[in-house]
Amino acid sequence: MITMSRRRFLKRVSQIAVTGALVSPGRRTCLGSQAGLEAAGALPIVDTHQHLWDLSRIRLTWLRPPLDRSFTPKDYEQASAGLNIVQAVYMEVAVPVDQRQREAEYVLDLCRRGDTVTRAAVLAGSPADDDFMEYAAQYRDNPYVKGFRGSLPVKRMSDEQVIRNLRRLGELGLRFDINVPPSALAEAAQVVDRCPDTRFVLDHCGNADPVAFFPTGRTPPRPAQHPAEQWKRDIARLGAQSNIICKISGIVSRVPETPLPAEDLAPIVNHCLDAFGPDRVVFASDWPVCLRGMSLRDWVQRLQAVVAARPETARRKLFHDNAVRFYGLDAGNNQSG
Question: Any residues with CB less than 8 A from the CB of 64 and at least 6 apart, and which?
């Protein structure tokens, strides 16, 4: 396990040009210069959790500011300018069930065209649905569809139908993203254990709440949403299973009232990296949902600060190589669309 004091963390990060100076304890991060960011951008990035939606084509019922508008590939191109994001995997956006086909057609057309960084997709679909396998099977031979994500009700997580559908998904060579609250991580670990031939992805560091890791004496903006030690034990249990990887994402939007500095994100990121190991972690932006907390650029910079002391090979795996291998992407496609 990698542990370091707050003082050592700040000292190490201050030596990394990419982030500029990390500032006073308990305060926001002073982000680095454009020149520093461009230097870090030499490392190619695969974004494994890119959301897009065009409200002229689909209807979404959950939108709230600042997300209550369309977010298109052009918007993503502008948001990621200079970050060297060379490929992206689209993630479903919780459309109503009757619009899932329309969503799939939209994103698969983007993938086929090849004129954006979007090269693969995780589509909507819940293994708790009676027609899940019928829907999923139509994409078994589609080279752009890498898996599915959908509701995994805690009270039904271990139902035989759910387990059977997840096992069959693995037989089709497709993956399933697990997106559950921290209180359900132990049950999720049981599901992963019962489906050893299915590849899983844990979204958003298990939805950890950064407030749970604030140092003693720090005044939190609200109560923590879960105990830190329980989350750590459950993440370690998931990380011990070889058929699941972890997306390093999501945590920046959990405290929208406070743009968190890198030092507040480090306990969560480092625990996930250590629990899953260097070969089973991938970068994910969760854009534009990340805008609830900060910009895509700011999230990349903060994560680069957290992992700056790790070997370059580990950083390359996190930001690029693991995603290419896990999703079967074109390893030679290192130019953005």
Answer: none
